[in-house]
Amino acid sequence: MNAYVPLMQTLAWVLLIVGVMVAFRKQLTVVAHEIARRLQKGGGFEFGVGVLSVKLAELRDELPHYQSEMAREAAPVPVPEVNHNIEGLPDPESPGASAVWEQYRLQLNEKSRGIQLAHVISPSKVPRQRFDVFVYLVTSRTGSLDEVERAQFFLGRRWGNRVFDVLNEGGRIGFSTAAYGSPLCACRVVFKDGSDVVLSRFLDFEMASVFETNDQIAPGERPRS
């Protein structure tokens, strides 16, 4: 009988959660609709991306004009010494695998100097396009955009095989575009000391359902590169 106790406890929690959702379904629906409405208007609802908290309204105004923003103050976080001789990842079940995986992760972060590529989407008003896409650099606690001279973005043939060269002018380093499908973005980050690193990000539309639009891209749709 004791063997069924965990199962009964799990079942009780499931029934409790379902009961709460049923009891407050009207309130939850109102909240979801309000979030979608405010997102569609491009502002008001705040959410986290990496270590930054951004609003779509701020992105609309900021990215095209490279407006400056206050430097984020954060205490420096010590980083363990990185093993640069790791070329691949072992089977997770093999002895010492977790340490190798962690070293590899630290190696990736060090190579990019704590800088990564992020994006958010919003329903587009551009004819025959589904979403406005905002693409920009973000940092971890060990990174700083002050070290970046420029970022060069490439989306492929549907954007004329152009490289969009964006200088670091003190604000967010990125650009916006309108897209019908989800492209793969390659980004070359050039640092002020002359070195560089190449980042990439699939500009997916997985959040399309949040906007409750008939023009959303189905999850898993092939990229339009």
Automatic annotation (TrEMBL):
It comes from the Bacteria. Residues 131-204 form the Prokaryotic YEATS domain. It holds the Pfam family pYEATS. InterPro entries: pYEATS. This is Prokaryotic YEATS domain-containing protein. It comes from Kitasatospora atroaurantiaca.
